[in-house]
Write a structure and sequence with these properties.
- By secondary structure, the protein is α/β, with parallel strands linked by helices.
- It has 2 domains: about 5-145, Rossmann fold, CATH 3.40.50.720; about 150-315, Lactate dehydrogenase/glycoside hydrolase, family 4, C-terminal (L-2-Hydroxyisocaproate Dehydrogenase, Chain A, domain 2).
- Helices cover about 45% and strands about 20% of the residues.
- The strands form 5 sheets. Strands 3-2-1-4-5-6 form a 6-stranded parallel β-sheet, with helices on both faces. A 3-stranded antiparallel β-sheet has the order 7-10-11. A 3-stranded antiparallel β-sheet has the order 12-15-16.
- The longest helix is centred in the C-terminal third of the chain and has 23 residues, at about 210-230.
- The radius of gyration is 19 Å and the shape is globular.
- The model has no long low-confidence stretch (mean pLDDT about 95).
Length: about 325
């Protein structure tokens, strides 16, 4: 078994999301080597070439197409492979197609590399994170999904717009399923430590219930809207992948709402979904308990039940 190269990443799947993630990672300077793998080898060749031509304007990184043998020493393996979400389709509609694809991909990865972190980005990300953990035999801390990192960023963005304040000063999480049953955790949302409703009033907004509903719906439906207008979403998720990789490579111990298998957190067990977690060089160090009100607790459990029903159907 090769020893792990901490500056090497592999991307499995070179569709819109995989190639946009490769581009974001190239610009980040986090890795010195990146291998792109796709069922259509020419797609991987083309993307690697296209991205490589921008290297004179970036930091040195070797980007090339490869096959599963090239991942044996990768520190982070990013799996974006799978059928994309079509207009009108939910993420859960993709289940059977993409679990089938994972049944062929994940064992190939596990055969060659036992020490990497598996970052699952393909949808439905929670079901596929669970699938990858079961098929790979990896320790659970090293298999997690991009989860609601992007949804939470969308929430921060919309709140920043609503309040006319820098979205980086907004602290709020979307938790649960990356999908239709996701929950905006309003009871713990704040702007630089100021409870969200107080900050809203400071900015002249008093109709909290209406605004919260509209913003949460806006987050939930944004992917559908983008898919309807441009057929796919990829820039936002690519930047989310870059952010997660930063936390891993630099061992930042950042708190990110990634999807991982839960064990008893909020009474949820044996299902992968998103909760804030400390992410560093070993993957998910621990989930972070988050204050939820009764309605949020109930909605989170309902989200878990939705996912559990799908898992029970598959395994």
């Amino acid at each position: 078994m090769n020893s792990i190269d901490h500056r090497k990443a592999a991307i499995v799947g070179c569709g819109f999301v995989g190639s946009a993630s490769a581009f974001a990672l190239m610009q980040s300077g986090l890795f010195s080597e990146m291998v792109l793998i796709d069922a259509d080898r020419n797609k991987a060749v083309g993307e690697a070439l296209d991205i490589s031509h921008g290297l004179p304007f970036a930091k040195p990184v070797q980007i090339y197409d490869g096959d599963y043998d090239d991942i044996s020493d990768a520190a982070v393996i990013i799996v974006t492979a799978g059928a994309g979400q079509k207009p009108g389709e939910t993420r859960l509609d993709l289940v059977k197609k993409n679990v089938g694809i994972f049944r062929s991909i994940i064992p190939e990865i596990a055969k060659r590399n036992k020490d990497a972190i598996l970052l699952i980005v393909a949808n439905p990300v929670d079901i596929l994170t669970y699938t990858a953990a079961k098929l790979s035999g990896y320790p659970e801390n090293r298999v997690f999904g991009s989860g609601t990192v992007l949804d939470s960023a969308r929430l921060k963005y919309l709140l920043g717009e609503h309040l006319n304040v820098d979205s980086r000063s907004v602290h709020a999480f979307i938790i649960g399923e990356h999908g239709d049953s996701e929950i905006a955790a309003w009871s713990s949302a704040n702007v630089s430590g100021i409870p969200i409703n107080n900050f809203c009033e400071m900015r002249g907004h008093f109709n909290h219930e209406k605004a919260m509903k509209e913003i949460a719906e806006g987050v939930k439906n944004s992917a559908y809207e983008i898919i309807e207008k441009k057929k796919a979403t990829y820039y936002g998720i690519a930047m989310s992948v870059k952010r997660i990789c930063e936390a891993i490579v630099r061992d930042e111990k950042s708190i990110l709402p990634v999807s991982s298998i839960q064990h008893g957190n909020h009474g949820i067990d044996g299902v992968a979904l998103s909760m804030p977690a400390i992410v560093g060089k070993d993957g998910v160090e621990t989930t972070v308990p988050i204050e939820l009100d009764e309605n949020e607790e109930a909605a989170l459990r309902k989200s878990a039940e939705t996912l559990k029903a799908v898992i029970d159907d598959l395994f």
